[in-house]
């Protein structure tokens, strides 16, 4: 009888803890790592020869949108993540989660990403949602946050003003229920319609609930452009008042107008850390953002609901003001690519400049018309980030890497919806770019930022490391061949170099071939235990 279900032999183990790599074998029994060392005399049902390969923990993606883009259901294998080596994803990001649902209109927030009329919802609470997902096969492990926008949609009658005391109490109750059911914390997107008018009082009140459960408060900043400093100040004010653990999603400074504030932003973050605030952030290694086109509108034009915003676009005077505000952003229209649109799909893959030339309209008028015709549901790739800023934050001890993407299967992707390349290539690109090309990080440092550090931030005690008695989420890859292939014009390409991927001890990728078996689990927050990151890089 074999000693192990799987033995990974002869590989260089990078354990996720930023320790030097070591030549060792890894023995797996069921879903657990049982032994690490010289297992040359042992036998296994499956033996993996990892000679000249690196053996690392499965990567953990803290900013994923597979749930709110519905691919968790439509593409449960999450192949574009598995081919990167991602074995665990966190959903419920950027203010929107799939639970709790109390008013019946929370799911409407998802119509910008898929046709909500085509889905059936048979849950209300977070507990019911997680139970339902648990019944379904899933390629990766899934955990969730609770969306602040989701709570507000279900609790606040007038979204144009701060919540009343009773509404805050209702949100606190819903959040407490969600956290008790296994949610890992609260996420925000304070620039979006349903969160714009949220007052500090309600945010601090909810942050205190998160603090009590030792969860995280995860921010999509209110503004990532010219108002980045006030947005950071708001986050740190809430963090200070509640002593909550704060994580900033997809941190970036968008546009040249914001780039000059880079040093001040970094100083603010590091002063917060010096003042004993718990602050971390994630980044992705791309200079093009992927976001909703309507977020380029000035803040006053985004106030109110969908009908109010569309009304602003149709009003001649307001339209002129919006056009002027867009001109002031000094956008690179020649590099702004339409990724998806609700109605006029002929524009997908074209730049704003190309559409301007072909229609003989100003680029600003093209943007306004696109939003109007497609009822605001247009996404773009926008060249807006400074490469040097990404390089700088990649080396910070409080930063991790995340996709801000979606798990796809190329066979079922929509032809007129271009995914951002980060959904297919983030983690291999990090290894190729920061480790192999720039030599800004060692293999051990980069993998620490993909495994143990995000596990510590989230509070996953038995994932993110290769260690005895931890779950067998493991990747085996060729350091010479690891690379991303996805591009903005041809994004539906899986990454290369991942030869074996194990999820909970089950084989998801073997010898460079995808398995039909899905081994992901639903992860629920249970304990109030966490190691918070300290400077090790």
From TrEMBL:
<dbReference type="InterPro" id="IPR050378">
    <property type="entry name" value="Metallo-dep_Hydrolases_sf"/>
</dbReference>
<dbReference type="GO" id="GO:0005829">
    <property type="term" value="C:cytosol"/>
</dbReference>
<dbReference type="GO" id="GO:0016811">
    <property type="term" value="F:hydrolase activity, acting on carbon-nitrogen (but not peptide) bonds, in linear amides"/>
</dbReference>
<dbReference type="InterPro" id="IPR006680">
    <property type="entry name" value="Amidohydro-rel"/>
</dbReference>
<dbReference type="GO" id="GO:0016812">
    <property type="term" value="F:hydrolase activity, acting on carbon-nitrogen (but not peptide) bonds, in cyclic amides"/>
</dbReference>
<protein>
    <recommendedName>
        <fullName>Amidohydrolase-related domain-containing protein</fullName>
    </recommendedName>
</protein>
<dbReference type="InterPro" id="IPR032466">
    <property type="entry name" value="Metal_Hydrolase"/>
</dbReference>
<dbReference type="Pfam" id="PF01979">
    <property type="entry name" value="Amidohydro_1"/>
</dbReference>
<dbReference type="InterPro" id="IPR023100">
    <property type="entry name" value="D-aminoacylase_insert_dom_sf"/>
</dbReference>
<dbReference type="InterPro" id="IPR011059">
    <property type="entry name" value="Metal-dep_hydrolase_composite"/>
</dbReference>
<feature type="domain" description="Amidohydrolase-related">
    <location>
        <begin position="382"/>
        <end position="489"/>
    </location>
</feature>
């Amino acid at each position: 009888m074999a000693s192990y279900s799987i033995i990974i032999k002869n590989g260089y183990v990078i354990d996720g803890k930023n320790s030097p790599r070591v030549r060792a074998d890894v023995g797996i029994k069921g879903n657990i790592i049982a032994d690490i060392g010289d297992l040359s005399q042992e036998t296994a049902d499956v033996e993996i020869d990892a000679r000249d390969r690196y053996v690392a923990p499965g990567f953990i993606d803290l900013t994923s949108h597979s749930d709110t883009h519905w691919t968790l259901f439509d593409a449960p294998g999450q192949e574009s993540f598995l081919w990167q080596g991602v074995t665990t994803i966190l959903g419920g990001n950027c203010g929107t989660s799939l639970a709790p649902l109390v008013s019946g209109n929370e799911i409407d927030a998802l119509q910008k990403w898929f046709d909500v009329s085509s889905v059936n919802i048979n849950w209300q609470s977070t507990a019911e949602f997680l139970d339902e997902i648990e019944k379904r096969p899933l390629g990766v492990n899934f955990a969730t946050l609770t969306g602040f926008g989701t709570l507000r949609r279900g609790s606040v009658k007038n979204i144009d003003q701060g919540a009343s005391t009773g509404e805050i109490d209702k949100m606190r109750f819903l959040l407490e229920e969600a956290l008790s059911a296994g949610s890992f914390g609260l996420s925000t997107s304070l620039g979006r319609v349903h969160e714009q008018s949220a007052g500090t009082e309600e945010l601090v009140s909810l942050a205190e609930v998160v603090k009590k459960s030792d969860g995280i408060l995860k921010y999509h900043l209110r503004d990532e452009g010219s108002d980045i400093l006030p947005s950071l100040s708001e986050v740190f004010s809430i963090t200070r008042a509640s002593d909550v653990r704060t994580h900033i999603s997809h941190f970036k400074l968008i546009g040249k107008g914001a780039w000059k504030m880079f040093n001040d932003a970094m100083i603010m973050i590091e002063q917060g850390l010096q003042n004993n605030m718990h602050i971390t952030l994630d980044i992705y290694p791309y200079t093009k953002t992927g976001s909703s086109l309507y977020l380029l509108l000035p803040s006053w034009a985004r106030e109110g609901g969908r009908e109010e915003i569309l009304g602003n676009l149709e009003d001649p005077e307001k339209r002129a003001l919006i056009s002027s505000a867009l001109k002031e952003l000094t956008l690179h229209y020649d590099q702004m690519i339409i990724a998806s649109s609700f109605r006029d799909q002929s524009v997908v893959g074209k730049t704003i400049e190309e559409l301007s030339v072909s229609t003989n309209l100003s680029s600003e008028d093209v943007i306004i018309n696109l939003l109007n015709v497609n009822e605001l549901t247009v996404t773009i790739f926008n060249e807006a980030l400074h490469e040097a800023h990404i390089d700088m934050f990649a080396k910070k001890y409080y930063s991790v890497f995340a996709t801000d993407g979606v798990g796809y299967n190329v066979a079922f992707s929509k032809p007129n919806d271009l995914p951002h390349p980060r959904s297919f290539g983030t983690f291999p690109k990090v290894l190729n770019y920061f480790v192999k090309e720039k030599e800004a990080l060692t293999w051990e440092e980069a993998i620490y930022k993909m495994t143990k550090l995000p596990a510590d931030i989230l509070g996953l005690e038995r994932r993110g490391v290769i260690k005895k008695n931890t779950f067998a989420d493991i990747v085996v890859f060729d350091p010479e061949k690891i690379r991303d292939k996805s591009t903005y014009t041809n994004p539906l390409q899986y990454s290369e170099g991942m030869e074996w991927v194990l999820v909970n001890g089950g084989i998801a990728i073997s010898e460079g071939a995808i398995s039909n078996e899905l081994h992901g689990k639903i992860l629920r927050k249970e304990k109030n235990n966490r190691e918070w990151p300290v400077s090790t890089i």
